[in-house]
Amino acid sequence: MKPLTELLGQESFSRADLARLIGLQDPAEREALYRAAYEVKARRVGRVDYYRGLIEFSNICVKNCLYCGIRKGSRGVRRFESTLEEILEQAKWVCGHRYGSVVLQSGERTDPKFIDFVDEAVRGIKRVTGGRLGITLCVGEQTEETYRRWFASGAHRYLLRIEESSPAFYATMHPDDGRHLWQVRHECLLALRRAGYQVGTGVMIGLPGQSEEMLADDLLYFRDMKIDMIGMGPYIVAHDTPMGQAVLKAGLDTDAHRARRFELGLNMIAAARLLMPEANIAATTALQGLNRHGRELGLRAGANVLMPIVTLPRFRPSYQLYDGKPCVEDTSAQCANCLTARVRWAGDEVGWDSWGDSNAFFERT
Ligand code: SAM
Ligand code: SF4
Fold this sequence. Notes:
Layout: H1 4-8, H2 15-23, H3 27-44, E1 48-58, H4 84-96, E2 101-106, H5 112-128, E3 134-138, H6 144-153, E4 157-159, H7 167-172, H8 182-195, E5 198-201, E6 204-205, H9 212-224, E7 229-230, E8 233-234, H10 242-249, H11 255-275, E9 280-281, H12 285-290, H13 294-300, E10 305-306, H14 332-345, E11 349-350, H15 359-364
Parallel strand pairs: 1-2, 1-10, 1-11, 2-3, 3-4, 4-5, 5-7, 6-8, 7-9
Bound molecules: S-adenosylmethionine and iron/sulfur cluster.
């Protein structure tokens, strides 16, 4: 086996190389991986981290992903929808606090009322902020026509995690009801690219049955799909879901399991940075769900995007994708101060007022 230092200095990586990096467990070796990834980040995208204010505007969802705390079948969840006025107020807050961008996220719906509502929200945000905010959407699988309509209204980035790049593995965690098809999700990513968006995708990390080779395949999928933005994070148990219950029953959610999922999350960020130096990579909230320093460690491992939650405090308890989601009791202002401290701790600066678009997008267009 070649020495780790040699592997870390490479410019291209095989599946076996990636699986080895993702599987590193020795603390000194992991530290070497994160240092190498941070150096690539500094050289290629800079030591500047960008904020996207995350507005979780509705938890109503027509789908039943087996892992998700707000799936349609979760009976204990109080369903909510923000009004247009609330969203516009939140967007003004985001703009006033000099975050360059906003993300509108929700459960998945495809009814005309929902499509019109998202369209109005995008146009409204452009209007009330004088076009200053970049707008990312994260509202699931839609038709190409809908993606094009929202793009024409002013959204320019879209997040849609493929969740798993293996169709067979994907099928094990999505009900076989004709709605949850891997091929449809994959086609949506292609449609988003045709429509002109900067396209983001990602996977959950540390799922039962997921090997390091499968995670390596996920990274190769991002590369082959010429993805501009990567948003991936550890899987965290939502106890009131079919997957959460199975994991708890099998004894697979001990402290040691959670710590390993966290390490895998950091290793994946670092390996993604080495493989795709120009991509925007998020340090997601789920990292902090498993380790209170999770997001700053994500930045040190090569991530350059943070998504502070600006969801209205009264809705936060109802948007629990998983148990122990952080920031549920904080206000948006507390989240802002706390994150800026995390960025400074990582040794970076905040890219205030900037859209912080993906270099990878400009390279491919
Ligand atoms: N409904 C849209 C969709 O699925 O694309 C957007 C919102 S959805 C809540 C955003 C992401 O949450 C999903 O892509 C999924 O990866 C993540 N998620 C859901 N349940 C999770 C869990 N238990 N642990 C970690 N991430 C989870
Ligand atoms: Fe709905 Fe998204 Fe949760 Fe799946 S992951 S159940 S689509 S909110």
